């Protein structure tokens, strides 16, 4: 099929590249000329393991092209996938769908043949209906058939998730859209991947409900971890024990400094907003959001306490390992570090930081942070260390060298990467989450 992927962020670019690698003829379209220039030069504007190599292979095979021009991209296209951002509106909780609507309006203005328009962006329930209303107001032309098709890609594992999905959820508005989506995804259907065909509104709700449930699971285990610290239990043992229950499962039961990233924070807020507008509030999710925000301040307090409390911490220097919200991405959106670092600075603590991929964007986000070129450089001369993001290279670093570089062997591990007993035996003042000291 000829496919147009609109938007070249994490979702749009991964989707376009992967469909091209499956044999479809794909054009990735973006109104950002600089992004398209980089893509045409073989450079991905985002860091995602394996993406740039797979992109180059698809381009060499003649299956993938990049453009800013709607007319040329949509010529003879059968499917257009809208995969633009839906950020939270400034100062509010509602998802901003203006980019989705702008992309759809551009499609209406430029398409010239029968086209199925698939909304892959994460959008509030009812967005597909609103797009249909926009279509009804537009001068009649070649027919357009709308569908929802939410994505379930994890940053850092997006290609794996796309090529080996748990399920594919589609919400076509008519039989033409349903047929087009089945043709597009036939390779997955032939492999017996669960193919969930529902209404557009149900597809939109599935995406939000899935992310809300996972955010709730993360927040639950973080609260359990805090309680474990008080009663002398080990949260890792607890997580293992409850995760063996098939009704619960082991995933998303690793404690940490709170969820972040491009999805969970904005999607939980958007679902709460929709629920409030509809007069059916989701109290559990409201609590999840509040607890997750408080969690980040608790993590800063843990670092301050490791330095001797508020009075003694003032004037000291802390090294931060990891700025992105998770490993294997350069994405800092709603990362715990964005809340933790200012909280430390407000306590009079100086911050030095290193991240394997997030340094360039971090410079625009943080003020008065001393960015360092390596993990070891960050700790040299610092009075303590805090691991925020569990990049693999931090787990394999020589801790003896790290200890010697610090002025004192203080280590706050917000991802439980290291073993408490081994750290204690090595002479560290080591603090982690939900585990006995």
Would you kindly provide a written description of the structure presented here, covering whatever features stand out?
- With 437 residues, the chain is of the alpha/beta class.
- The chain folds into two domains: 197 residues, NAD(P)-binding Rossmann-like Domain (Rossmann fold, 3-Layer(aba) Sandwich), CATH 3.40.50; 219 residues, Rossmann fold, CATH 3.40.50.
- Helix content is 46%, strand content 14%.
- An eight-stranded mixed sheet has the order 3-2-1-4-5-6-7-8, sandwiched between helices. Strands 11-10-9-12-13-14 form a six-stranded parallel sheet.
- Helix 1 packs across helix 3 and helix 10 crosses helix 12.
- The mean pLDDT is 96.
Give a quick rundown of the structure.
The chain is α/β, with parallel strands linked by helices. Helix content is 46%, strand content 14%. It folds into two domains: 2-198, 3-Layer(aba) Sandwich (Rossmann fold), CATH 3.40.50; 213-431, NAD(P)-binding Rossmann-like Domain (Rossmann fold, 3-Layer(aba) Sandwich), CATH 3.40.50.
* CATH level-4 homologous superfamily of the largest domain: NAD(P)-binding Rossmann-like Domain
Mean pLDDT: 96
CATH T-level fold name of the largest domain: Rossmann fold
How many whole angstroms does the radius of gyration measure?
24 Å
Residues in helices, as a percent range: 40-55%
How many beta-strand segments? 14
Task: Characterize the overall form.
Answer: elongated
Mind summarizing the main beta sheet? 8 strands, mixed
Strand order of the largest sheet: 3-2-1-4-5-6-7-8
Class inferred from helices and paired strands:
alpha/beta
Amino-to-carboxy terminus distance: 58 Å
Q: Which residues sit in consecutive blocks of at least 5 with pLDDT less than 50?
A: none
Per DSSP, the total helix count is: 20
CATH class of the largest domain: Alpha Beta
**What CATH architecture label of the largest domain applies?**
3-Layer(aba) Sandwich
Strand content: 5-15%
Number of domains: 2
